[in-house]
Write a structure and sequence with these properties.
By secondary structure, the chain is α/β, with parallel strands linked by helices. It has three domains: 53 residues, Alpha-Beta Plaits (2-Layer Sandwich), CATH 3.30.70.20; 185 residues, Rossmann fold (3-Layer(aba) Sandwich), CATH 3.40.50; 118 residues, Rossmann fold. The chain contains ten helices and 21 strands. The longest helix has 17 residues. The relative contact order is 0.09. The structure holds flavin-adenine dinucleotide. The site of flavin-adenine dinucleotide has 29 residues, from helix 8, helix 9, strand 20 and helix 10.
Amino acid sequence: MPIVVKIETCNSCETCIESCPFDAIVLKDGKAFINEYCNACTTCLTVCPEGAIIDKPDTTARPAAATANLADYKDVMIFAEQRHGEVASVSYELLGEGRRLAEQLDAKLIVVLLGADEAAAQDLIRWGADKVILNTDKSYEQFNDDVYSEALYNIIEEYKPSIVLAGASAIGRSFIPRVAARLRTGLTADCTSLKIEPETRCLLQVRPAFGGNIMATIVCPDYRPQMATVRSKVMKKGKYDETRTGEIIKLSGAAISSATSVIEFVKEVSELSVDLHAAEVIVAGGRGAGEKGFKLLAELADVMGGVVGASRSAVDEGWVPYCHQVGQTGTTVTPKIYIACGISGAVQHLVGMQSSDIIIAINKNPEAPIFNVATYGIVGNMFDIVPQLISSIRNIKEN
Ligand SMILES: Cc1cc2nc3c(=O)[nH]c(=O)nc-3n(C[C@H](O)[C@H](O)[C@H](O)COP(=O)(O)OP(=O)(O)OC[C@H]3O[C@@H](n4cnc5c(N)ncnc54)[C@H](O)[C@@H]3O)c2cc1C
């Protein structure tokens, strides 16, 4: 409920100004005025000798989703982002995850696509969508906070999904919180895994917390939809099925006019000298590799047609540049083969590579946590093992 001043009753005594812990009350035109810093803490209500400050019922607020029947919210909805008409890879990863969640909930998987063409929508169906809500109008081609928030908000209000997922990309991070705020529901940013709780059928949203030192599971039991953003490369793409069919619901009409206008688009110039995202083989080193070890790892990566990755410790030591860092504050990767040499397996490293198809860990400590996620583990000194691997692979290639 907003706090307001009854102007006609205020006698300008200024008692309320001193009482406010947030400096939210000022004198304006000789009367108390509540500004945008107000936290609705209600401290001022009791201090005004004239009773001029009151709690006013907010008649403009939308009813909280909690007051609606939660059973009305059913399906799983994905926001598929596009740039220059091309759907971002994180959206295909969300489709894989969304499909799995929808099946567990016996629900439909709905994808929202703005500003791309029908061929892109068809492709999303082949990747697992049951329905694609598509608006091909040119006004949606370029991302705009106001426009996308309004469009997605209206679609959610109409289709009432139980779960809404989007990429934790620059686009998703920018407008999804606005949509959640308008819907009066919760949002978990940067999730690394999602599950359905069997008893409650609620979405369990897992993400690193407290600087990545713990993994927190967040639930949104009373409000709908349950909203989450997910980092790129954390989840696997679904299965592509050429013969899969679904429904495309075409929305017409241009976007609302926005308060912002775009002057120019400038193409991003990446500072990455190594493309960890695209690599099918990554040979990564940690503190155990040392500067010398990285020369060996580069050789192994070379014979395997891969690239070099690194733990943060190795980057902090200055053995390799930041663009090689894998993990929570580096790049999230999903190669076919990830070889971790002299890396202990701290949780911040694991969140960035544990979805790799095959993980091979080489570590001289048999208790190192990296072995908990490894497909194959080799206990030993990497300076003995890596040269053997290099020569064996060379032999195989030559014969
Ligand atoms: C907010 C935050 C964000 C972070 N983000 C990241 C991130 O993005 N990426 C990341 O990697 N870390 C990150 N970290 C750091 C993380 O917590 C660990 O400190 C780091 O991953 C440890 O790196 P490491 O495994 O190389 O080193 P260590 O933990 O020191 O492990 C070295 C390992 O090498 C083994 N070893 C030593 N010599 C040899 C040898 N000759 N042969 C074989 N094995 C050997 C040892 O047994 C040991 O297991 C972050 C931390 C915080 C707090």
